[in-house]
Prior knowledge:
- By secondary structure, the protein is mostly helical.
- The chain has four helices and no strands.
- The protein folds into two domains: 54 residues, no CATH class; 41 residues.
- The mean pLDDT is 78.
Amino acid sequence: MSSPCASPVLFxxxxxxxxxxxxxxxxxxxVSYALGxxxxxxxxxxxxxxxxxxxxxxxxxxxxxxxGSVALMMTGAYYILTVTKWFLCGYITSHKSSQL
Length: 100
């Protein structure tokens, strides 16, 4: 499964796995990406099904949507910062090595 939102993350994972050159690390990175991606979709579908059946949750749907939106934005910001730091540290390390 691929989507416009997931493809940049997948490409970053693939690039990071390929850049290291370790087959085991690349395999573990891809497996963890796949598990995280499918777990997120599974939990979202499970929660949606439970929410539709619960009148009490339907009364709080506005708050649940806002909480989910904020959690998603915070997760995205965390990943953006982490990946940026990861790429910059790799660039700085390789740039220092080439100057020696």
